[in-house]
Design a protein that fits this description.
581 residues, alpha/beta, 8-stranded parallel barrel, two-stranded antiparallel sheet, 12 helices, 23% helix
Length: 581
């Protein structure tokens, strides 16, 4: 969850005006109450302007692309095979997934007009605006962004990017460190009320529609278009910014938003936001996962650290109690909230904190490292390790990741939640040939596993086999109609179940949705999914066709605001597809 807003005034059914409403962001209140539409306010520094180091928090040095991908360069997370086009992006170049395209450095000095847009100060980097025509000094229009007095810029979900030559990456799903600065008014702020046009009413078909980053401003029009599920996204860091207790304003706003969607007839799904751990958790000893080079993951160490698990359990129990009845919780602990280790574009292995290395006896997974000190791809005690040793080590590594996912699900159940647990799974993952050959190569970095699927634990057949309890589990395919497959988005076929996962090459041409649907059927698990984002109206039709082909019950559209930005699939496209399906 990146953009969490609500209006404090009454919400009409056709258009929601922000001109006189308080807007609550993820960590504070944006200074919009005194700004009338068309009124500019001046200040030397934008409220919430960020000063970063050259690298986003918890990230290794990524070059020009975003954190959260399985493989960088021209390839985005969750895809099996991208060309030069990133998941969620219209074009890469120096711009991260989830953005469209920027100039070499996104400095905004001109007024920005949009339904709820904020232009940051001249020295602040922009990461929340979409524009294919923007040039320095020109007006910009773009999707909603929030700047709060506490210093956060709300950018696109799952999109952290660095402009070419820049040093201040914008923040999205990853929580980044910020240098404290004065909370002053934004420079050159222009506010315009959103204009909402109702599409022709739709009756949802057999594939339901939901929205990610559900925005209460669009509640009525979403419903009118056929949306029936709203994904409420949270951040642990916003709920408990310190270890002394909850931020009651944030808590109350999230609870009220869930209640509003329920009252309007929506089914509510929850992303608990464990990928956004607070600083006081990350900064404690072994609070983050560590790679072999000592770099931190930027995500909390749920895999090996029992102290972190206990702290997170307190949050999850408070969350389930406060939100009340919801239909589902999303399960995943990576930086993007998916069911993997953090990304590993530089061949990171996330097993080098003190718990993982056996320097602390009470490892959370309950199983000691069988080869402490060993770095995959290197020798062990002066000799190349045998394949049996490598296989044992990898079974321990993957098993620890699966144990953390099982812990998250148990903890939600212990909080008296009895609904669906949606295991968020991106991409095809590693097939049997890749697993066998990387183990045989001592887990050395190899081009045939360019997405580093073994490093991230995206070995989906083994993950589902290892989970101790699949009761109430739903597979959430987070890459519906990505660029995987010999033919993009190829659908499921009646003969698929006769194919053996262990047969080398048998599924090489399958889309990620088709492959994950195959595994879900083998385990008798229901399916849902979500598109990669930045999808066109034509993409929308393919997404729902693919979903219907593979038996997905719900498609969560990424993202709610993009249905209204005029550059991507619209509510009219969605309504038409739902009517015809």
């Amino acid at each position: 969850m990146v953009l969490l807003t609500r209006t404090s005034c009454a919400m009409p059914l056709v258009a929601l005006c922000l001109a006189s409403c308080n807007v609550i962001g993820s960590v504070g209140v944006a200074t919009s109450t005194s700004v009338a539409p068309g009124t500019a306010t001046d200040g030397p520094v934008a409220s919430g302007a960020l000063t970063y180091g050259p690298v986003a928090r918890g990230a290794a040095r990524y070059g020009p692309v975003a954190r959260g991908a399985t493989r960088y360069g021209p390839v985005a997370r969750g895809a099996t095979r991208y060309g030069p086009v990133a998941r969620g992006a219209t074009r890469y170049g120096p711009v991260a997934r989830g953005a469209t395209r920027y100039g070499p450095v996104a400095r905004l000095r001109a007024p920005v007009v949009g339904p709820h847009a904020v232009v940051v100060a001249p020295r602040a980097r922009a990461g929340a605006f979409r524009s294919t025509t923007w040039r320095p000094g020109a007006p910009v229009s773009g999707p909603p962004a929030v700047v709060t007095p506490r210093g956060r810029l709300g950018a696109l979900r799952r999109a952290t990017w660095r402009a070419a030559g820049g040093h201040h990456p914008a923040v999205s799903r990853a929580t980044g460190r910020r240098t404290p600065g004065p909370a002053t008014t934004p420079a050159r702020l222009t506010v315009a009320a959103p204009v909402v046009t109702l599409p022709t009413p739709a009756t949802p078909g057999h594939v339901r529609a939901g929205v990610l980053i559900a925005d209460r401003r669009y509640l009525a029009t979403d419903w009118h278009a056929g949306v029936r599920v709203a994904v409420l996204e949270l951040k642990w860091s916003a709920w408990a910014p310190s270890d002394s207790g909850a931020d009651e304003a944030y808590r109350a706003e999230r609870v009220a938003t869930a209640a509003a969607y329920r009252a309007a007839g929506f089914e509510v799904s929850v992303d608990p936001g464990l990928q956004h751990a607070p600083n006081w958790v990350l900064d404690q000893p072994d609070g983050q996962l560590r790679a072999q080079d000592g770099s931190g993951s930027g995500t909390a160490n749920y895999v090996f650290n029992p102290v972190v698990r206990a702290q997170a359990a307190t949050y999850l129990h408070a969350l389930t109690a406060a939100l009340g009845p919801v239909a589902s919780y999303r399960v995943g602990l990576s930086g993007s909230g998916e069911a993997t280790f953090p990304e590993a574009s530089n061949n990171q292995w996330w097993a080098f904190d003190r718990y993982a290395q056996g320097d602390r006896a009470d490892v959370a997974s309950g199983h000691a490292n069988p080869m402490p000190g060993w770095v995959p791809g290197t020798g062990y005690h002066g000799a190349a390790p045998a394949m049996a040793q490598v296989s044992q080590w990898y079974a321990w590594y993957l098993g620890a990741s699966v144990d953390a996912l099982a812990w998250e699900m148990r903890t939600l159940r212990d909080g008296n939640f009895s609904g669906a647990l949606q295991l968020v799974m991106p991409g095809n993952g590693a097939n049997s040939w890749v697993v066998t050959h990387r183990l045989g190569d001592g887990l050395a970095d190899r081009s045939y596993d360019g997405f580093h699927t073994l490093n991230t634990g995206a070995v989906w057949d083994r993950v589902l086999n290892l989970l101790p309890d699949l009761t109430g589990v739903t597979v959430d395919v987070s890459s519906v109609y990505d660029y995987s497959g010999d033919v993009r988005g190829n659908g499921c076929a009646s003969a698929d179940d006769a194919v053996s996962w262990s047969t080398p090459g048998a599924m090489d041409g399958w889309s990620s949705t088709r492959a994950l649907a195959y595994l879900a059927r083998r385990h008798h698990l229901p399916l849902v999914g979500e598109n990669p984002g930045a999808s066109s109206g034509e993409d929308l039709r393919h997404v729902f066709q693919l979903a219907a082909s593979c038996g997905l019950g719900t498609v969560y559209w990424a993202w709610d605001y993009q249905l209204y930005d005029g550059q991507h699939a619209s509510t009219a496209d969605l309504a038409e597809e739902l009517r015809s399906s």
